[in-house]
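Re: beginner question about structure tokens

> Can someone show what the tokenized structure looks like for a real chain? I only ever see the sequence side.

Sure, here's an example I had lying around. Input first:
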Amino acid sequence: MPIHLTSITALLILGALASPVCVALPPPEAQASSPELQPADGRRGKVAYGDTCAQCHGADLNGGTGPALKGPPFAAHWQEQSTDDLFAYISAKMPPSQPGLLDPQTTLDVEAYLLQNNADGFFRPKPSSAAAQGPAAKSKLPAFTPHGGPPNDDAFAQAAVARRREQLARLTPVDGAMLSRAAGADWLTWRGSYANQGYSTLSRIDRTNVGSLSLAWSWALPVSQNEITPLVHDGVMFIASANRVQALDAATGDLLWQYVRPLPPALTNGSQAIVKHLGIYGDKIYYPTPDVHMVALDIKTGAVVWDHALKSGAEDGYMRGGPLLVRGKVIEGMACQRTPGGCRIFALDAETGKEAWRFQTIARPGQPGGDSWNGAPVEERFGGSVWTSGSYDAELNLVYFGIGQTYATSTLLKPHAAKGHSADGLYTDATVALDPDTGRLVWYYQHFNRDVWDFDWVFERTLAELPVEGRVRRVAVTAGKLAIVDVLDRATGQYLFSKDLGLQNLVSAIDPKTGTKIVAPQLAPKFDVSDSICPHGGGARNWPATAYNPVTHILYVPLIESCTDFIRRTRTPAETAAGAVDIGFVLKPRPDGDGNFGRFEAIDLATRKVIWTRRRRAPELAAALATAGGVVFDGTRDRVFRASDDRTGEVLWETRLPVVPSSSPATYSVDGVQYVAVVAGGGGPHDSTWSSLTPEIDNPTGSTTVLVFKLPAARPPP
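And the corresponding structure tokens:
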């Protein structure tokens, strides 16, 4: 299967055969999509081979349970393929128990060792070409079986390849109109459409039959800190995990192509990576990589079209939200902690990868909000992370992003030599509305000024048409960690109203005209003194997204009930300037709790009333998913994935997954059959935060799997 990396050329073969010491590499500009590699060394390769390959292929390469890696059969198999193909195969498939274990440098060294041991009759060098990157080459079945010998190219295999080629060939370009529509047969964005509603118009699965859902297929993914959303277009599912992007048949789970990202050893093959979704636009898939690049892949082949680095120099940063594709732009927010001056939102040209604009999420002096940092210079302003994808209103031509808090709270609390007008800390805890063509700030609204407790408002901005005070308003809806829902006019940023869900004690009042949150006097910021605050810094709600039914105006919110002993530590000026975190939390149950921590709540935004609440022991860890069939899905830390009646909250179906469903479920249809997909496999920060609340829930680790459910096929009439 394809890995798109220009690794070695004819120079590598000549170098490897002539000397056991080093192998020449192409110039650095030819390796744009790979880490910078050192010259390959067959001696290092011999050691790595002994550690990871010899058990199957024999210490002398003559084979064992696996095929021989030298001699005429091996040479005959590879003679029509390039050295790039061999590198790609080792990277993507070896070792079978943990594919992708070898970092690019080690893979290069192992390949050099194989070349040295096949000096007589080894396959001839064949450089990669545009033709070799085409659909036919990238759709072939795996070419190297564990038992050796050439692949069985019989009629069955040929028919399977032909079906896959045809399926990929039928993929159509995706445009903005498709991304604007509510999700139906396709699931094209993180929350189904530009509106981020987490709602599907599909209704074949409904209240009357959802209890019959059963597993249609499943597919094991490379292990990572999972939060991924599967995207589906024209019957093909696109999904990322660790350092791979895979295209699967959405009806069967068969692999159609995959892209494997070579990573530096320190990134452990992406096992610590978190990304909530890919992007689809035109004829490309857009992938935010663990090494902080944006990569555009051909939707039909997985071939790299362009690769753009989004971090340079001393900047820290990572991408967790996923790309928003708008008007020919790939718009991505960065999360960061220690970069002086804070984080940023980028826009890249979707065709070329060239940067179009960037927006700094921490206001600069002279800009709107630039005087809100307590007089601190820019280099002492930290945070403003963006770790959730944006939404888009095509008629207003505005994109909306939520921005997080600062981790260096001392900047906003300690006096500075040059006094600022305020210590609000813009644009932390704010919604920003940007022109997607230029990155120009059109308006902003700060939900929580001077957030020095880590209760950010960074989550999805849900776009809706909602009756407010007797007329329909076009609104943006969002809730922060405090589980206070704010509703804004999305054309102007005007504050309309809030709904406090009652799980916090930090905010004692909300100004009804401005939405300003007033902090309880007894919890005013102080240093080196512990306060009991609800909720914990992990939030009464966090990244598991809400779902909104645009027909009923009901918002479904996954919640967690908790409190914390909060402390703010004194930091020296040097520590503050270095971006040192100065807050700490000790998780504890609510003092009025009853042992239930998970809470799933339905709020009618038109009436501002809670219509039902379902509480349970296990914390909520999956995003909500609502459908026109009257069903809403959620998932909890006890590995349960369930469907409930969206009117009452009554559980209609549930199943126990192999691991935690810490992800965003999706629903789609292929050939008239509706499917529901969820990725299971925890390990992210939100999973680990809550483990001490329910110590009896001891989940397995090291497994990431997409599971897809459907209704049983109708029986033919007798």
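Each token stands for a local structural state, so reading them left to right follows the chain. The two ends are 45 Å apart (CA to CA).
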